[in-house]
Amino acid sequence: MGGVQARMEAALGRLLPAAHLAPARLHEAMRYAVLEGGKRVRPLLAFAAGEVSGARPERVEIAAAAVEMIHAYSLVHDDMPCMDDDVLRRGKPTVHIEYDEATAMLVGDALQSLAFQLISENRLSENPSFQLEMVRTLAVASGSRGMAGGQQIDLDSTGKSLAPPELEFMHIRKTGALIRAAVLLGFLSGERIDQEERQRLDRYAKAVGLAFQVVDDVLDHEASTATLGKTAGKDSKQGKSTYVSAVGAAQARAMAEDLRAQAHGALAGLGARARRLGELADFIVLRKF
Ligand code: GRG
Question: Which of 4, 27, 124, 206 has its CA 20 to 30 Å from the CA of residue 98?
């Protein structure tokens, strides 16, 4: 895992505009938002999925960087006063605190554009239709039927009590869609695209995407701000429905375990090529931060 994370840090540093380039304040803030922090779960998933389809690391790296930039943009906007209104992210002040709100908005906008620039100007597959599919996959995952739509549902449901199926509907979009895109982009940048394997990976991605959120809810309830690097216990303070508020922490943990089993089940038959995906399903469910 450490190797991919170090590789990603270097790639992101290279792919982001240099801090001294004009407009320097925006470029510096974009680098602040993306670099030195974060578990890099989505890039790790993209690289692991690329191992199944025999992807060249220099191709997966671009796809993974694009997904991570969309993720970083979502965190910057999510932390703004008009949304979650938070001051701490990845153990440091949020972008609108370190810079200002207008800059934070532009950081998100520019990161989103840069993500699409990267996956359209670099060759990521020998087959142009696969590359176009990657662009479309990332667009759908980030848009109103994916992450942005999930965020809207989240905002609309504050103060309401959601049942598990409604929570699932929201989180499949808000958190799950981008995780699924990370897996698919990694897979599609590979040399051997087998459609049955692709469906297996998609089933895997849906399970880990939801598991990620269930565990996130448990950690928000159980872990400390210092461990998480972001404000703990916010969900209940803000009147948000979570898996913990809906079914309790023990049942939420059991759901995460069930999703972990589903993820491993989807990988059955893929052998050693899917070893890292299996390890990541374990990490996502068993993590403490
Ligand atoms: C603003 C369009 C828009 C969307 C925001 C992803 C999101 C939607 C909001 C983030 C709020 C949040 C805490 C969501 C729960 C799950 C989640 C995505 C946590 C953060 O992801 P990690 O844990 O973060 O991978 P790091 O910092 O490790 O990259």
Answer: 4
